Every structure is written in structure tokens, then in C-alpha cells.
Amino acid sequence: MGRTIYSAITLLLLSSAIVGCNQDEIETGDFIFDKQMKDNTPVIAVVHNISRNDTVNHSLSDYLNNDDPNDMIYYPITDANLYEDLEIGERITVTAPHILLSSPLQAVAVEVERHDLAE
Predict the structure, then answer these.
(1) Domains in the chain, CATH or no CATH each
(2) Is the pLDDT of residue 65 over 80?
(3) pLDDT, tens digit, for every residue of 17-64?
(4) Which pairs count as long-range contacts for 50-55, CB under 8 Å and 24+ apart, including other chains?
């Protein structure tokens, strides 16, 4: 019986460790997929509601060419220093009051909340 309890505890600890290791894959949010200059304006391409793992295993074209064109939005960034500091693959939340109905969608970012800085 002691061996059974020991095995159960070991299995429980291993399961907890595996779940803890997979947190980055489970985490979802909005991630920067590209940074570029368009007509002398700094722009970031953000894909919405994906996992951190998706940022490694997919390309921007996967989201531009899928069935839901609303997955990706281009955000012009008015703060040049912020634009330079943002990194591809970074998880952010963008506040943009007006979305332009274009293809792909575009919206001016009035606020960018950076989540990866706190980690």
C-alpha cells in the first residue's frame, strides 16, 4: 500500500509539473507578428486571440489568407519610441476606438498595453 501511495503522489507531482510547463502554450492573447513602415508611418501587424505557441508555428500570411479576415489588424503607432521598443512576438492589448473597414483591417492605436514586460 505504501508503494501505491508513493506512486500516486509521484504521478500527481509530475502532472503538476507538466501543466506548469505548458502555461506559455495555453496563454492566449494578441501578438505582434510584424513591424513595418507604410508611407513613412510605423505600423504593427497584430493577430488577435491566438496562443503564444501559434506565434512560433504560423506566419502572418496564414492569418491574412484564412477564413476570418478579422484575425489580423494593422495598427499605425504614433509614438516612434514605442514603435522601436515593441518586439515581434510580444503579447499586447491595443485600444483603438475606430476600426477602418479595409482589407486587412486597420485602426489607429491610442493605447498599447504591454503584457510581456511584467513577466
Answers:
(1) 27-114 (2.40.50.140)
(2) yes
(3) 444 444 444 678 899 999 999 999 999 999 998 888 888 898 888 888
(4) 51/25, 51/26, 51/27, 52/24, 52/25, 52/27, 52/28, 52/91, 53/24, 53/25, 55/31, 55/89
